[in-house]
Design goal:
about 290 residues; alpha/beta; TIM Barrel; 12 helices
């Protein structure tokens, strides 16, 4: 099977943002510009996450998803603030192919079972945001990494699969946005414990990190943000007016983190192919307007 490379777009209001440890969000641009470019560059899927949805009890991505689905023809996953079957149905009707559940799933695990029965397991992705504790255990967090739950990550992953989820996305909050590489132990243990695909997320700082989490972490897919986003901003005009829209210091200086070696998607896929990882050839697609 092909290993999927999936750009992740974290959204706050109308903007694409990026943080470190899921905090300190800074504005990078308008998500539709990034999404269109990644589609043209050969992305296998896209993940949209409303990173403040659980905080405010709503998901504000549906309009963005509707616009995106009209011109981008790869699977779209939408997450953040989806609490009920009606919320999931509305996201799918807006053009999402899958939904990502985290906070609501931990508070009500039966939502996973009900949703997979109603919409199909392949539609339901459960996101697990993990923090490693001093004793070496991993705890699942909710609300975009803001709230502890007391839920042990590996037990939760097994339960998620038993309840009918189609795949799991595991994010190391400790590594997220740092560019220090994925938590290979975390990803590998989950991948070896469940019979469903596992998407690794959080920590990629260079292309070899992506290869490592596939070869050593046993990930079935990899979700990437910083490497791709910083590369896009460096080489594209993002001159939209962002005044009054939060932290825009990065856009003013256009300096990435020293730990991030940005790269375009075709370069990542070519590297993986050269190192024996089977992935969909990085074809260049035309955008539909």
């Amino acid at each position: 099977m092909n290993t999927r490379i999936i750009p992740r777009l974290d959204i706050k209001g109308p903007n694409l943002v990026k943080g470190i440890h899921l905090e300190g969000l800074r504005v990078l641009g308008k998500p539709e510009h990034f999404a269109r470019y990644y589609y043209q560059q050969g992305a296998d899927e896209l993940i949209y996450m409303d990173v403040v949805a659980s905080l405010y009890g709503r998901n504000s991505l549906l309009e963005i998803v509707e616009r995106t689905s009209r011109e981008i023809f790869i699977p779209l996953t939408v997450g953040g603030g989806l609490r009920t079957l009606d919320d999931i149905r509305n996201a799918l009707r807006a053009g999402a192919d899958k939904v990502s559940l985290n906070t609501a799933a931990i508070h009500n695990p039966n939502l996973i079972k009900a949703a997979s029965q109603r919409f199909g397991s392949s539609t339901i992705l459960v996101s697990i945001e993990a923090i490693k504790k001093p004793d070496g255990c991993y705890e699942a967090y909710t609300d975009n990494g803001r709230e502890s739950t007391g839920v042990e990550v590996f037990e939760w992953a097994i339960k998620v699969a038993e309840l009918g989820a189609g795949e799991i996305m595991v994010t190391s909050i400790d590594r997220e946005g740092t560019g220090k590489g994925f938590d290979l132990k975390l990803t590998r243990r989950i991948a070896e414990s469940v019979p469903i695909p596992v998407i690794a997320c959080g920590g990629a700082g260079k292309i070899s990190d992506v290869y490592d989490v596939i070869s050593q972490g046993k990930a079935d897919a990899v979700s990437i943000a910083s490497i791709l986003h910083y590369n896009f901003v460096k080489h594209h005009d993002t001159s939209d007016d962002f005044s009054g829209e939060g932290n825009i210091e990065y856009l003013r200086g256009r300096r990435g983190l020293s730990t991030i070696q940005d790269a375009p998607l075709p370069e990542i896929k070519n590297y993986l192919t050269q190192h024996g990882v089977q992935c969909r050839h990085p074809i260049t697609r035309a955008a539909h307007v």
